[in-house]
Design goal:
By secondary structure, the chain is mainly alpha-helical. It has helices at 7-40, 78-81, 84-94, 100-134, 141-160, 162-170, 172-175, 194-202, and strands at 51-56, 59-64, 75-76. 21% of the residues are buried.
Length: 209
């Protein structure tokens, strides 16, 4: 099977794009955290109650609306949640495409998918914060365990699985080298009669003793 991506050429492009992405990410991480907080805000109705959140550096702080905000409110570590972009962007840019417009369309799709995942990640982290820090008495033990398990699982997937999952899903056919399954027609066989079998058995085979 022939791969649609040449391994060594792809590895070289991947390393180059990774260095450039990481260098740019150091400067833009805080701005992206602000964007993530703004995008997440409309979806906070999925949480238990009305919640205010605001970025601070690469963290997203949150607290129930209408309550006095403490000096140190709980925070979501957004630098961990959004770190998957540092790997996803080089993967998308290093993969060859027929045209640059095709590559940018794929990149836009990948960014939309990873942003949706990050919003879900922030919401789960906020639910975890309510269940374990802000109002743990309002949750049963199994609920606290469920939110803790979900938060840790999602954050584990963030940087190690999600970038490859999105990249491979978008380039699935290309990674398989454009392999197409073809149906091979089965030729019908004609049945042999007893008389034909006898004639065939009477003929001596070449090379036989």
């Amino acid at each position: 099977m022939r791969l649609g991506v040449k391994p060594f050429a792809f590895l070289g492009r991947l390393l180059g794009w990774f260095v450039l992405t990481y260098a740019a990410w150091v400067s833009f991480a805080s701005a992206y955290t602000h964007l993530l907080a703004v995008v997440t805000q409309p979806f906070l109705r999925l949480a238990d109650r009305a919640t205010s959140l605001w970025p601070r550096g690469t963290s997203i702080l949150f607290w129930p609306q209408g309550m006095q905000v403490p000096q140190r409110p709980p925070a979501v570590p957004a630098e961990w949640i959004q770190a998957n972009l540092v790997l996803l962007l080089p993967l998308m840019l290093a993969t060859p495409a027929p045209t640059w417009s095709t590559k940018f369309r794929r990149l836009a799709l990948a960014l939309a998918l990873v942003l949706a995942w990050q919003v879900l990640d922030v919401i789960i982290a906020i639910k975890f914060g309510y269940a374990t820090q802000i109002d743990p008495l309002s949750y049963a033990g199994w609920q606290r365990y469920l939110y803790a398990f979900a938060a840790n699982l999602i954050m584990f997937l963030d940087t190690q699985v999600v970038p490859f999952m999105i990249w491979a899903g978008i380039h699935f056919r290309q990674l398989l080298g454009g392999l197409r399954l073809q149906k091979v027609p089965i030729m019908p066989t004609t049945p042999t009669t007893p008389s034909q079998k006898k004639k065939g058995a009477a003929r001596p085979r070449r090379g036989s003793a």
